[in-house]
Structures are given as structure tokens and as C-alpha cells.
Amino acid sequence: MATQGSLPVVQCVARARIPTTTGPDIFLHLYANDRDNKEHLAIVFGEDIRSRSLFRRRKNETQQERMVRGAYVGKLFPGRTVADVDENLGLELQFDSDGELKVEKETTWAKKDTLVRIHSECYTGETAWSARCDCGEQFDRAGKLIALDREGEIVGGSGRGVIVYLRQEGRGIGLGEKLKAYNLQDLGADTVQANLMLQHPADGRDFSLGRAILIDLGIERVRLLTNNPDKVSQVEHPPQLHCVERVPMIPLSWTSDEDGIHSSEIEGYLRTKVERMGHLLQKPLKLHTMENVPASSTTITTHTII
Ligand SMILES: Nc1nc2c(ncn2[C@@H]2O[C@H](COP(=O)(O)OP(=O)(O)OP(=O)(O)O)[C@@H](O)[C@H]2O)c(=O)[nH]1
Ligand SMILES: [Zn+2]
């Protein structure tokens, strides 16, 4: 687990509106940073969640250049010439003498609890239909919960929220090493043992880039979608960033016979997360060590961070 340490410097390179197949427009932000050369992303729900580094005014730039990188208010349309004013919607951005965006409630989301997922890239789970993990399901669920007002007892994001998408494939070991880890798992190791056998830490990820991206987006109070306690502690950077609540992500297969991922591999994966990585999962789970103990006593309770 990485220590808090200083924040990386992040720069939003571009933002674009993405009309989605599921309904809402999202705003995809691509980031550069001073720690690695990966293209980390922020999937932002809500036109008014604004990247300070993207909107910061640059010397001698034109309004056209601002619109091309995505530093505009409201909606783009053919013939629009000014980035900082959307006359159709009656929106205008204001800036201070240093060219920093002024946070005004009419144009910029601020000081509100925001539903957030810090998600690590998983090609196999998100693209290759893998039933070894629940990453793809979690990614989809995060988008759905951000768009919804509520789902059962979970309060959604009502169309405002962020999925910080960190290029940390394989809990940071990369896709090639993760494939080797899968082979070791087919040979009987669990996901933690496999990493260690390959001379990698069980989970060497550093979420400081996630913190820096959220702060750049002006997010201050996070309702974090995760079962991973390490992530909860990583979303603390007082006074700028606080985790005010942990919102559990219960695997769909635990609440439905049809939905979700049903495979022997996923049960082992989730069991290892609970037993060996300290993940906080609510549904009773038959643990290796608790074979003959009634399920009700193995419920792992979660704690809402206040
Ligand atoms: N090394 C390794 N990485 C895996 C394995 N299965 C999934 N992963 C990676 O684990 C990461 C999953 O992280 P997240 O989806 O952020 O979830 P989490 O950190 O486990 O915790 P939650 O926020 O509760 O979902 C991704 O980078 C996956 O590629 C595995 O068997 N071995
Ligand atoms: Zn995965």
C-alpha cells in the first residue's frame, strides 16, 4: 500500500462529449502526469464537473483552441466561436487574473458529495468476457449507479459522478504478467499467491494519481464505490479531498441467479479478496477457514465513513 506522499502533477490534455448507448452523455477526460507515461482517464458524468487544468487559460490561445481541447461550457454546435460562453444556454465561465476558473454554482459542480469509482484497468474483465473477475461488472455498475437517483437502498449519483480509470492492469503488474498469474491460478495458486510467485507484490498499486485527478476535477467530498479498504484510505487528502462514505459493490451473482458472473473462478477470486486482501463484502461467504460455520456468522459488515 503506497503512503500518502506528495500529489503527482496531472494535466488534462483533452475532454470530449461521448453520447452513450445507455443514455447519458459522458465527458471523457484524458490525463498526462509527471509519474508515468500512461494515458489515465476520467469518465465524468455531468458537463459542469470541470478540470481546472483543462479550463485554465493559456497564454495567447484562441477560443477555437479552447473548444478543440474541450475547454468549453455548455454544448458545441456548428458555427460556435466562443468557448467560455454558451449563449443558447445562457452560461458564461469566469476566470481570475491568473486565468484560473472561478467556481460559480451556475456553471461548476462544487462542494457536493460526489459518487466516485476509482477503477483499475482490466482488459480481460472489461473486454474479453472474462469470468475470472468482476471488474467488467463493476465498471458497468458504477456507470449505472452514477446515472441513477437510487437503486434499492443505494443512493445513486443522479447523473453526476466520476469513474477515474487508472491504467493499472493486473493490479499494476501489466497484462502479460497477469496472464502468467492466471496460469499459476489454474495450477492451484490464488490471485495473491500467483503475484508473489511472479516476484510481484500482492497489490502494488498506488492511487495517488486517482487523488490528483479528483482534486483537478474539483471533487472534494467522495462517496466511493468500492469494497477495497485501501482505496478508501487513499481518497483522503485533507483539506482538499475526503471520503465521506464507502458504497459497497455487491456482486450481482450474489443477489440474482440470472444476472452477474457465475463461475468457480470468480468465487475463488472474491474469496481471496475477502480472506487475504481485506476486502469488505457484505454477503455471507463460505470462507476456506469457516467451512462448517453457519453462513450468517461470516457476514463481513461494512462501515459508512462519516
Ligand atoms: N495480478 C492480478 N490482477 C488481477 C487479477 N484479477 C483481476 N486483477 C486486476 O485487479 C484489478 C481490479 O481492481 P479493481 O477493479 O479496481 O477492484 P479492487 O481494487 O479489487 O477493489 P474494488 O474497488 O472493491 O473493486 C485490475 O487491475 C485487474 O486487472 C489476478 O488474478 N491477478
Ligand atoms: Zn478483472
UniProtKB/TrEMBL annotation:
The keyword Secreted does not apply. Transmembrane segments: none annotated. Its EC number is 3.5.4.25. GO terms for biological process: riboflavin biosynthetic process. The keyword Hydrolase applies. Keywords: GTP-binding, Hydrolase, Nucleotide-binding, Riboflavin biosynthesis. InterPro entries: GTP_cyclohydro_II, RibA, RibA-like_sf. GO terms for molecular function: GTP binding; GTP cyclohydrolase II activity. CDD domains: GTP_cyclohydro2 (cd00641). Residues 108-247 form the GTP cyclohydrolase II domain. Pathway: Cofactor biosynthesis; riboflavin biosynthesis. It catalyses: GTP + 4 H2O = 2,5-diamino-6-hydroxy-4-(5-phosphoribosylamino)-pyrimidine + formate + 2 phosphate + 3 H(+). Belongs to the GTP cyclohydrolase II family. This is GTP cyclohydrolase II. It comes from Lachancea quebecensis. The lineage of its organism: Eukaryota, Fungi, Dikarya, Ascomycota, Saccharomycotina.
